[in-house]
Structures are given as structure tokens and as C-alpha cells.
Design brief:
The protein is α/β, with parallel strands linked by helices and 468 residues long. It contains 16 helices and 16 strands. It has 3 domains: 268 residues, HUPs (Rossmann fold); 133 residues, Orthogonal Bundle (Isoleucyl-tRNA Synthetase, Domain 1); 47 residues, no CATH class. The model has no long low-confidence stretch (mean pLDDT 93). The structure holds zinc ion.
């Protein structure tokens, strides 16, 4: 797979450092409110990279953080309030109750959108010790300093500061924002907090060598990415808005602490706009995943819709296009059911040359910096191809769906009925189980599996469904 690296500004081949397992870290949600579909488009990026890596035969270790402390309302100046505290005050809950509520909502939304499970969801407040240890390392190495119970990163101690975002020290000096309130404790106005002294009314605080306080937002991603993926890992994802300051600061922290580059490839996703504006709560133009279903749209159709735009580009969300994608997904599922009725889907070893050519083109597209618009073109050509028999078309789409995640076989699965022979085997097996003749029950199970079925033991007896 090739991906565009935001740091070197070039498309490059991504090869796992250990040759086998792609290690991916994705900046996850700050759980102080519901995520909107623009946020979810960004989280789909890590999922898509993981899916393509598996499709290409690699192992994947995917880690996503959950931010539940330290993310301030103004993350460029360390001023403002902690978003968790603010939400707690608004809703009359504790910050931990806020985190639990919106973490659960996030998982519900991502499942609805076919975003697979990460291997690890690491929560910031579970890793305060890791963040304190990293902060202490940075102080010891001369990259950070303490003033009055807070610890700041000294950007001038890291000459490469700005290499990701272009906000270099020279640039920052030139563009010095006079209108901002500059923290008098900072040596340089771009220095940022690793640890902040807790104010008198602060609910979330922890003991530290510098007194009671709480971590800055950026330190959690350095601490947790290296804890779960080591100090050299392959891919780091996030939205374009995280390049600065969040990822710039993460680079300064991680590389300052270990003395070498940590991330192989930085991948950033474009914004989702609605009516020409960035989707943001402040702009009052957000759409949630649950609203899609309320409007009669399958949330997976939003996935299909996003595939029409390269992940790096901004995408404009329009309801007419959303409804069009929903229609298109239904049609694809209906075609799959028709092809399923015509016969079984053959394995890749039996595919015709035409089918193999489509497979190759699809693989080229998804491996080429996630060119999903092109992948969807290949999909459409398969659907209408006269050169590929129906069974092979279904086999191709089932295979593509490992990347697309559109549940294309849903209608075929729901329309399917067991044959009379299968039904009689199921009754025989239930009779054998009732008679505690488990050897016979197992033998019948094997026969059903041999017929391409999945066999499940439900409370009211055996149920079967077709595999693939
Ligand atoms: Zn992060």
C-alpha cells in the first residue's frame, strides 16, 4: 500500500517495520459530546488503512486513543477551559460520567458505520503515569521546564519544530499573534503545556512531582502510542486540523524523548463540509450518525458516499447525494441477492481471466493511496460486466467488501432459505442432541458445514446460515 505522507509531502510505499504487522495509531475522539459524521469520516481513515493492509495479507495492530482530559477549548494557546469540565458543568454530570456517556455513543456510531474494532482503545486518564514519566524524561533532557506547578515544552530546544505543519520557529516569530493573551510563564510564546497546575475548582486532577495537576492534551498521544506500538511504528492518522498544534507537538515530545523519528508515515484526512462550511458545532451545521437512520438512510451508505472523494480532499455533504448513495447501496445488495439465487460464488482459484483482471484493478486502486473513487468505478464495472458470470461477480464483490465494509451480501443473506435436505438434517441433529448422541450430532454438523453452512446452537435448537 502506498500512502501520502504529510511530513515528507510525497506518496510512499508503506512497509511494516517488522515486515509483517502494520502498526497504526489513530487520534480518536474527545468524549465530551456526540461525534458528527465529519469526525466519523476521519475515524474511517484508520479503519480503511487497516482493512487494506489485511486485504493485502498483512497483520495489523491498530490503536486508537480516547481523550477524556486536558483538551482545552483553545488548543493553540493553552488557555480556555478543559472541554470535559465544560461539558460536565453543562450537563450536571461528573467528567467521568460525561466520558462514559460519549464513549459509548462513539462506539455505537462507529459500529453503525462499519468501522471495525481497534486492537486497543486507550483512555487518557488510565495513562497518567505514562504521561508523567514522559514529562519527567523531557525535563531531564532539557526539552521541558517547570514554572509554578506547570511544565512546559520548550519549542526552541527542538530545532525541527514545525517540520510537519510548516509552523517553524521562524514562522511562529513572524506570525506572532499579538491579540492572544500570552502566558507570562512561557519562555517562548509557542511553548506548550505538558502538565498544568490544577485550579481550585478543578475536578479531574492527579498528584505529580510538580504538585496536583492534569496533563496537556498532546502528551497523551506520545505516551500511549509509544506504550502500545513501540518507539518506531508505521502509520499515524488524524484529521487535517490535528497537524498543528497537536501532531507538531507530538513529534517534538516523542522525538525529543527518544532521539529519533517515531512515526513512519503521517496520514491526514480532509474535512467534511456541509453547505460549504466545515462541519462544526459552532457553525450549527452538524449531522450525527443517528440522524442518518432517522432520515431512512442506512449509515453504511454514508461510507459509500465518502468513497466518492479522496480521503485527503474536503468533501461536501449534501442530502441529495446521501439519498443517491443509499439508493445505490440498495441496488448493489439486490443484485448480490439475484446472483446468489443463480448459484454459488466460486473461490478465486476458479475465477475467469476477466474476473482476475477486475480483482487486480481493485487492488491497484485501494493500494494507491486509498483511491476509493477508482475502487468504486471498478465495482460499478463488475456489476454491469457481461464478461464475468453472476457467481464470479458476487465472489468479486464479496472480496471487495472486505475493504469497502458495505455489507453487500445483506439481502442475499436475508433472502436465503435452507433446502429441504438441509432442513431435515437440522431436525435429525436436534433429535440426536435431545437423545444425547453427540457423536451423531457432530457428524451431522460436519455435513452441514460441508454444504457451506455456518451451524449455530440456539436455545431452541440448531440454526444454520450460509457462509459468505
Ligand atoms: Zn492525538
Amino acid at each position: 500500500m502506498r500512502l501520502y505522507d504529510s511530513l515528507t509531502r510525497e506518496v510512499r510505499q508503506v512497509v511494516p517495520a517488522d515486515g509483517r504487522t502494520l502498526r497504526v495509531y489513530s487520534c480518536g475522539p474527545t468524549v465530551y459530546r456526540y461525534a458528527h459524521i465529519g469526525n466519523m469520516r476521519t475515524f474511517m481513515l484508520g479503519d480503511l488503512i487497516a482493512r487494506v493492509a489485511r486485504f493485502e495479507g498483512l497483520g495489523v495492530r491498530w490503536v486508537m486513543n480516547i481523550t477524556d482530559v486536558g483538551h482545552m477549548t483553545d488548543d493553540t494557546s493553552d488557555t480556555g477551559r478543559d472541554k470535559m469540565d465544560l461539558a460536565a458543568a453543562d450537563e450536571g454530570l461528573t467528567p467521568f460520567e460525561i466520558a462514559a456517556k460519549y464513549t459509548a455513543a462513539f462506539h455505537e456510531d462507529r459500529r453503525a458505520l462499519g468501522i471495525g474494532d481497534a486492537d486497543v482503545y486507550c483512555v487518557a486518564t488510565d495513562h497518567i503515569d505514562d504521561m508523567l514519566a514522559l514529562t519527567r524524561t523531557l525535563v531531564d533532557k532539557g526539552h521541558a521546564y517547570e514554572v509554578g506547578g506547570s511544565v512546559y515544552y520548550a519549542v526552541e530546544s527542538f530545532p525541527e519544530y514545525g517540520k510537519l505543519s510548516g509552523n517553524t520557529l521562524a514562522q511562529l516569530k513572524a506570525g506572532h499573534r499579538q491579540e492572544l493573551e500570552i502566558d507570562p510563564n512561557k519562555r517562548h510564546h509557542a511553548d506548550f503545556a505538558l502538565w498544568k497546575k490544577a485550579g481550585p475548582n478543578r475536578l479531574m486532577k492527579w498528584a505529580s512531582p510538580w504538585g496536583d495537576g492534569f496533563p496537556g492534551w498532546h502528551i497523551e498521544c506520545s505516551a500511549m502510542s509509544m506504550r502500545y506500538l513501540g518507539d518506531r511504528f508505521d502509520v499515524h492518522t488524524g484529521g487535517n486540523d490535528l497537524k498543528f498544534p497537536h501532531h507538531e507537538d507530538e513529534i517534538a515530545q516523542s522525538e525529543g524523548a527518544v532521539g529519533h523519528p517515531v512515526v513512519g508515515t503521517w496520514v491526514h484526512g480532509g474535512f467534511l463540509q456541509q453547505a460549504g462550511q466545515k462541519m462544526a458545532k459552532s457553525a450549527r451545521n452538524i449531522t450525527r450518525v443517528t440522524e442518518l437512520a432517522d432520515q431512512g438512510v442506512d449509515p453504511l451508505a454514508f461510507r459509500l458516499l465518502t468513497f466518492g472523494t479522496r480521503y485527503r480532499s474536503e468533501m461536501d455533504f449534501r442530502w441529495e447525494a446521501m439519498e443517491g448513495a443509499n439508493e445505490r447501496l440498495s441496488t448493489l445488495r439486490r443484485r448480490m441477492a439475484e446472483w446468489a439465487a443463480a448459484g454459488p460464488a466460486p473461490g478465486p482459484e476458479a475465477w475467469s481471466e476477466a474476473a482476475r483482471a477486475f480483482d487486480g484493478r481493485f487492488r491497484d486502486a485501494v493500494g494507491d493511496d486509498l483511491d476509493m473513487p477508482q475502487a468504486v468505478v471498478v465495482l460499478s464495472e463488475v456489476v454491469t460486466s457481461a464478461a464475468v458470470p453472476p457467481g464470479e461477480r458476487r465472489a468479486l464483490l464479496l472480496s471487495f467488501d472486505e475493504v469497502l465494509g458495505l455489507d453487500l451480501d445483506r439481502e442475499a443473506r436475508e433472502a436465503w432459505e435452507p433446502t429441504a435436505e438441509m432442513r431435515s438434517l437440522v431436525s435429525e441433529r436436534d433429535a440426536a442432541r435431545a437423545a444425547r448422541d453427540f457423536a451423531a450430532a457432530d457428524a451431522i454438523r460436519d455435513r452441514l458445514v460441508g454444504m457451506g453452512l455456518e451451524v449455530m446452537d440456539a436455545a431452541d435448537g440448531t440454526t444454520v446460515r450460509r457462509r459468505g
